[in-house]
Amino acid sequence: MVTDKIENLGSYPQLEKYQKEIEEFIKALDMQELEEGRYVLREDTLIALVQKYHTRDKDSSRMESHKKYADLQYIHKGEEMIYTDRVEELVLAEDRTPEEDILFYEPRRDSGADVLKSGMFGYYEPQDAHMPCITYLNSCDVVKVVFKIKMI
Fold first, then answer.
1. pLDDT on residue 32
2. Fewer CB within 10 Å, N side or C side of the chain?
3. How many domains is the chain built from?
4. pLDDT digits (tens, 9 = 90+) for 41-54
5. Which letter, b or e, does each residue of 84-103 get, where b requires 16 or more Cβ atoms within 10 Å of its Cβ?
6. Domain range holding 115?
């Protein structure tokens, strides 16, 4: 799990080969309002999902992880809390793989969380459970890009 400002993206060797495409996509987002949806940046290995939503209460959310893809969640506008945990310490509640590449877990006491604000990203590999889109101080509108990075 990594939380940092997007200008530090090059500091992470595991993201190095995707850095150029990610930065170019973010620049395009700055220049024009991209529609919500799926953008294939590099065949099936790097996909950008543009999302626009209102943050929600933690009680209406579930911890999740993925097997095939890592998530790099970039906050373009707004802010949110992302709760985190280790997959190995959680109890699986629902497995939607391989069709949707998502696993959900039973709730338990919080083990950690990060606040992501405009210009920041969180990076979550398959062993990193995460619960995104949660209201931080006040509910707000968020524009986020989730970069799906193929792991297997």
1. 79
2. C
3. 1
4. 999 899 999 999 99
5. bbebeebeeeeeeeeeeebb
6. 2-150
